[in-house]
Each structure stands twice: as structure tokens, then as C-alpha cells.
Amino acid sequence: MPAIQGSTAWISGAAQGIGLAVARELVAKGANVVMADLLDETKGQSLAADLCQLGAGTAVYDRVDVTDTASLHRSLVEKPQEAFGCCATIVVNNAGIVVNDDAGDAKIKSMMDVNMMAVMKGTQMAAEAIRSAGKKGVVINTASMGGLLPLPETQAYAASKWAVVGFSISCRPLKKSHGVRVNCVCPAMTQTPAVGTFFAKKFKEQDANHPLLKDQLLPEEVADAYIALIENDKLNSQAAAIMPQVSYLHNFDFVGVTMQGIQDGVKLPRRARL
Ligand SMILES: NC(=O)c1ccc[n+]([C@@H]2O[C@H](COP(=O)([O-])OP(=O)(O)OC[C@H]3O[C@@H](n4cnc5c(N)ncnc54)[C@H](O)[C@@H]3O)[C@@H](O)[C@H]2O)c1
Asked: Keywords for this entry (predicted)?
């Protein structure tokens, strides 16, 4: 089991919600954490100071917009060295936003830049930094259950999260080439200030008694999955589905799924093969 105690971590979207819960768990387990977020510097430093009170590890705040590639590099690659004298060997690309499908091209593109492009760039930067330092590490990307299932309420957001899952489970070779495991977490609706609140409102508008509203996850429950994926060094290119009653590793048994499709799926007309 890789030790969290004494390790260096970097987390985006760490000022609230799921990212803050993951940062808290890591500091409680003795990690030194760079909390990266858009939130202003003074409030961010105060959050980091609160986490330092937990006693085991430490935290510093770094204000960054992850969609700016140079700033992302400075935060993810340079800040951990500057603050803790070590590259981040635990990297959590978690910052995410959600907009309505009719928000317009500019806002949809901004969402794709945060949810998808920054995750891919963050993973690649982390892998290069860890390899250059001659270390081993782990990257956890935040996707969503809306990246494993259809999410008709927000189709563009679903596209961004399917992209995170597809990217993360395709990073399997980085373990051999860079010594870096890449996994992703796919939470169901979680009580958080922005993304969670957006979906709670959306489902409430559909039906005040919508079943999804009854049993929402807490960020702390979701954070447990990040810790499990970090601590188990056998887990690589996995997607962890997190639902109110259970968390599990999603089964990407491609051969099995394809064979089942051939057996059970609706056959489409096709020309005969010669
Ligand atoms: N809450 C849910 O129901 C839910 C479910 C599945 C997945 N997720 C995903 O979990 C992740 C965390 O979301 P949350 O629910 O905790 O939401 P949240 O909005 O409460 O927190 C997101 C954090 O990301 C930060 N952020 C946004 N854009 C940024 C940028 N460009 N650069 C740096 N930081 C930025 C915000 O300032 C905020 O602190 C997101 O990727 C979200 O899509 C959330």
C-alpha cells in the first residue's frame, strides 16, 4: 500500500465540495497538500490553515485557473516543489463546472476546457513531472455517474464526463512508461455548493419528490473512493462508481460486453459478407 503519510499531493477544485473533502482526508492521513482553486487567495489561505489544524499533514493554497495551461503547469509542477521540496506524487484533477445545454457555445466550450482539457493536460503534466523526478505516483480524475450512464438533463456535461472516463481508462500504459497509475471517480449526485446544487435544483424542477433527491451523497463519502484508489497500488485505469448505497469498480469487460451485445442486442440490417 503506497504511503499517504509524508507524500506530496495536488488537488484542483479544492476550495469546496468534493475537492475540499479529499484534501481534508489526505491532510488527516499526513500528506502535504497543494489546494488549487479559483477562489481568492485570502479565503483559500484560511481554508488551508484550517486543514493544517488537523495535525497530521499540512496544506497550502494556490490560486489558479486550470484552463490556463501555463498557470496549470506552475501550480501542478512548480508549486509543490516550492512549498514542499518535492513533486506531487498524488494528483487529483477535480475542478469541474456545469452549464445548461442552451448556455451558448462560449460557455459550453469553457465547461469543456475545465472538465475535459484541464484533466487531460493535468494528467500529462503530472506523469512527466513524476517520471522526471524518478518517482512513482497516482492521478485520480473526477468524472461522474453522468460519465457512465446517459444524463439527458445536461448532454454537454455528460459528454465532458464520458471524455474523462474514456481518457482515464485509456491511460493504462502510463503505469509502465511513467510509473503513474491513472484512475477516475464517478460520483452520483453529491451535496456540494455548485455542481451538486445545480443538479438538485434541476431534478427538483422536474419533480419535487424526484427519487434522486432523497438520498444524496456527502462529499466525505465520495472522498473515501479517492483514498481507496490512491492506497491500492494494484488499481490502474479504473473507474469507480459511487452511489448512495454502494461504491464499486465499474466493469469494463469489453469482450464480455461485446459478446453480450451480440447475443442480446437488436440486430441491425447489414449486407452479407462475401
Ligand atoms: N456534486 C455532484 O453532484 C457531482 C457529481 C458527479 C461529479 N461531480 C464532479 O465533482 C467535481 C467537484 O465538484 P463539486 O460537486 O465538489 O462542485 P463545486 O462546484 O462545489 O466545487 C468545484 C470547485 O472547482 C473550482 N473550479 C471551477 N472551475 C475552476 C477552474 N477553472 N480552475 C480552478 N478551479 C476551478 C471551483 O472554484 C470550486 O471550488 C467536478 O468535476 C464535478 O463535475 C460532482
From this structure: Oxidoreductase
Q: Whose Cα sits closest to atom 40 in ligand 1?
A: 96
Amino acid 1: pLDDT: 64
Query: What pLDDT, on a 0 to 100 scale, did the predictor assign at position 255?
Result: 77
Q: Does 8-187+224-241 carry CATH code 3.40.50.720?
A: yes
Give the CA distances from residue 8 to residues 84, 110, 124, 188, 229, in Å, rounded to whole numbers and listed in that order.
7, 29, 17, 28, 16
Catalytic positions are: 157
Low-confidence ranges of the chain (pLDDT < 70): 1
Q: Whose CA is nearest to atom 24 of ligand 1?
A: 13
**CA 114 to ligand 1 center in whole angstroms:** 9
Hey, where are the domains in the chain? 8-187+224-241
In ligand 1, the atom with minimum distance to the C-alpha of 98 is 43
Q: Pocket of ligand 1, candidates 18, 61, 119, 121: which has the most ligand atoms within 8 Å of its Cβ, to mutate?
A: 18
Q: Report the mean per-residue pLDDT for the chain.
A: 96
For ligand 1, atom 42: residue with the closest CA:
96
